[in-house]
Structure prediction request, 374 residues.
Amino acid sequence: MKKVLAIVLTMVMCFGLINCALGEAPKAGEGKTMLYYCAYIGDFGLADMGWRATQAAEEKYGYDVTLVEYGADSAQAVNSLVDALDTKHYDYVMAMSWYISDTIIEMSQNGEWADTTFILYDSAPSTDFGDTGNIYGISFAQNEGSFLAGVYSALMSKTGKIGAVINLDVPITNDFGTGWLCGYKYAVKEMGLDVDMMYTYMGELTVQGDYESVNVLMDNGCDYVYNVGGSVALGAMQAADEKGGVAGGKFIIGTDYDQYGYFKSVGDVQGYDTMVTSMLKNIEPCVELILANINGEATGIEAGNNLYGIAVGGTGLAENDWYKENTPEDVQKQITEISEKIANGEIKVVSYFDFESYDAFATYRDNKDAEFVK
Prediction:
């Protein structure tokens, strides 16, 4: 499958090597200021991923970076962002998550910030930034990667029952859930797999809440659980480990980044080896592409909301050595083939944003036999 992101990034790296060979050149962003605005560093999730991308940009372009964290309470996000921008003028603002989209749009249209370039990653695919001209949204077809997680779970299950734990009943995370449900239904109806499923939300978005939710699913027979928990995945891994772990055939599928690789490197994390794979949101290379474009390296990306799916390597499953060790070759082959079918449009994955109402989504969610209806 063609990986456009990888190809373009290779070209960008080659240009950098040529510059090194000719001698040290001034960095393109020297003298420019950048605000990185997030919940908090150390979240084992989206904030850390964006921070790594920001640090890479600081190194490559010479930006003067300021980090502002608003904390775990998302209700503080908007006011803290306004305060940060009132305190100092920035050439670039990089921020995370869909729930500040309206504020970013409003600010971009304010004359005071008209010359500021905003990069908002993990925006909703349905967000319309209109003709603002100075907002680059990075949204992901998490429904496509989640589809693979649903099919993979169905192919791998030994108990004939799989589960999904979704952190919050909100549009972005419901898009994960919709894709997973679509994958499950495809596995049953199109692949003829005899498997049942359970789908639930966390009682609270905490490590304990994730732990309790995964316990409920595994107590009810689920052996592969798709955990849309991001930073609270420590609870999911602990639960799977206590239910028998790898030896007992209990596995977690993570989200956002290669959680197995990360938690293995951290060390002393209970049950990290139950994380058989993860549904990736490739934030760092996507941010790099946009920054390269802004700095004149012509990657062809325009302002507005940019959607990254399987076709361009924006989402997919982590196919690391642990995945390969625990996944039979025929299953790996089927996942590859299905990925290619999604990329070329042969398989259409339902998105939460395809539904005209929440009730239409709820019908699709709550009836395992329900087909997609707007």
